Amino acid sequence: MPSKENFVGFAWLKPETLEPKCYICGYCGKDVSSEKGYRIHHSVNAGSQVGGVFICPNCKGATYFSPNYKDQVPGPLYGRTVQYVPVDLDRLFTEARDSTANGNYTASVLLCRKMLMNVAVAQKAPADLPFVEYVNFLAKEGYVPPNGKHWVDHIRKKGNEANHEIALMNQKDAIELLTFVEMLLRFIYEFPNMVPKPEKKPGQPVA
Ligand SMILES: [Zn+2]
After folding, report:
1. CA 7 – ligand 1 centroid, Å
2. Global pTM?
3. Which domains does the chain have, with CATH numbers?
4. What is the 132 CA–ligand 1 centroid distance (Å)?
5. Ligand 1 geometric centre to CA of 95 (Å)
């Protein structure tokens, strides 16, 4: 993915000045307004603007808007950023959000399952269990809020369905599982780190 640093010393060749387009950049996640890029026009009206490629003023990444602005590629990441997540897990989470935003729903579901297994093993679940057992483990160990039990049942059911066949997942499946994973990451990594840890009392031995 582009970043400001990737573009140091580089530039786009003669971009046009366009009617500005506001969008959330799928690369850097910023809410931007771009007026630089390359226009799509009506074939009978060369002066019109009905879509095009817009260059992000923040990261310089190029986003494509199809005629009449029906589709945005890449789309904005689905869901919200979670703080304090370990780097490798955060990369998987970002990839799942990106896959969901761009219609790769089966890939997103597979990534989310992988993350659930990793999170459970990090919380001392045994290795090499079936996916459903990891969901059970997280629920049993109290990582799911009391009123979230129907979520666990739902995800467990979807996990069982997919184990018996090569099932293509749809947008709803991907969004549900991603929402569940986001909640878990927030609960396990973000919330505990948002308040200061208790300070050592005077005289307490150094660990
Ligand atoms: Zn950007």
Report:
1. 11
2. 0.74
3. 10-73 (no CATH), 87-191 (1.20.120)
4. 37
5. 16
Span from the CA of 32 to the centroid of ligand 1 (angstroms): 8
Q: How confident is the model at residue 154 (pLDDT cuts 50, 70, 90)?
A: confident
Per-chain residues with Cβ under 5 A from ion ligand 1: 25, 27-28, 56, 58-59, 61
Å from CA of 149 to ligand 1 middle: 38
Residue 119 and residue 45: Cα distance in Å, rounded?
55
Task: Look at residue 181 in the predicted model and tell me its pLDDT.
Answer: 92
Question: Which pLDDT does position 201 carry in this prediction?
Answer: 66
Residues with Cβ < 8 Å from 112, sequence gap 6 or more? Answer: 96, 174, 177, 178, 180, 181
Q: What is residue 113's predicted lDDT score, i.e. its pLDDT?
A: 87
b/e string for 115-149 if b means 16 or more Cβ within 10 A? bbbbbbeeeebeeeeebbbbbbbbbeeebbeeeee
| CA–CA dist 116, 187 (Å, integer) | 13
CA of 5 to the centre of ligand 1 (A): 12
pLDDT digits (tens, 9 = 90+) for 51-85: 999 999 999 999 999 999 999 999 988 999 999 99
